[in-house]
Amino acid sequence: MPSPEMFTARDGTSFPLVPVPCCHYCSIPLGDSFGRWNICWRCNTRFRELARANPDEIRQSPYSFTRAVAAGLYITDYPEKGSAGRLIKELKTGGGHSTVLAEAIAHVLRTRCHGHSWDIIVPVPASSRKPPAPTEMLALELGTLINMRVAPVLELDSSYESGQGMPEARKFDNMKGNVRITEAGDVRGRRIMLVDDIMTTRGAAHWCSTVLLEAGATEVMVAVAGRSVDLRHLEFIGYSGPF
Ligand SMILES: [Zn+2]
Fold first, then answer.
1. Full domain range(s) for residue 90
2. I need a surface site. Which of 34, 177, 184, 190 has the fewest CB within 10 A?
3. What is the CATH number of the domain that holds 149?
4. For every residue of 137-181, which 3-state class applies, written as one string?
């Protein structure tokens, strides 16, 4: 059964981290049947489909990023019911909490990502034109905490529309062709930590990573404040801890 671990920020705010085991590629918590493989059904299916389409290609990951880590859970059906979800929802609507959430991301990077290192932080671009974007605030706080430069080099086309309410399959490709790089020189030859507030379909992370790799980045890893998950999934994997 997945087990909870509590995180407490410097200001005393506390919430449970994503329970382990969780998927190496998308950080969704796993039940006993998938836990020992460290990969979820969806990522595994994508891996197999890609392998079938290109049998000669050796892939490290079913996405263009190599791994994703998340700090807390974002309960899609009731974000305000979860303690991390509430903070993330307020962050998204301009209500702060970027320091607490960045501290939690720094904590999971330190404790759950041994042997990984990065050169630069890049935030996932926001569809909102109102600066500062929540993901950029989160990235800047994280950069200060782990002493790493932040380069907001990705931007979205003005025609881009958020995928809220779209069917899951279409949502994955929603950012495809809509994201571009403004300063390729900042990422060329570098290992990137791509930062976002929430990971849902993995599509935003995948298409942003694709653009970064095309611009010459050597590797992209993803770090998010919240892993989106619905209550049915938590029930299915037998998680009964706090969220
Ligand atoms: Zn996964």
1. 6-236
2. 177
3. 3.40.50.2020
4. HHHHHHHHHHCCCECCCEEECCCCCCCCCCCHHHHHCCCCCCEEE
Q: How far is the CA of 10 from the centre of ligand 1 (A)?
A: 30
Residue matched to tokens 């062709």: 177
- Kindly report the backbone phi and psi dihedral angles of residue 167, in degrees, each rounded to the nearest multiple of 5, phi listed first: -65, 150
Q: How far is the CA of 176 from the centre of ligand 1 (A)?
A: 20
122-151: b (≥16 Cβ within 10 Å) or e: bbbbbbeeeeebbbbbbbbbbbebbeeebb
Residue 112 lies in a domain: yes
Ion ligand 1 — residues with CB < 5 Å: 23, 25-26, 40, 43
CA 25 / ligand 1 centre spacing (Å) = 5
| The overall pTM is greater than 0.85 | yes
What pLDDT is stored for residue 194 in this prediction? 98
- How many structural domains comprise the chain? 1
63 Cα: distance to centroid of ligand 1 (angstroms): 10
Residue 1 lies in a domain: no
Give residue 131's pLDDT band: very low, low, confident or very high (50, 70, 90). Answer: low
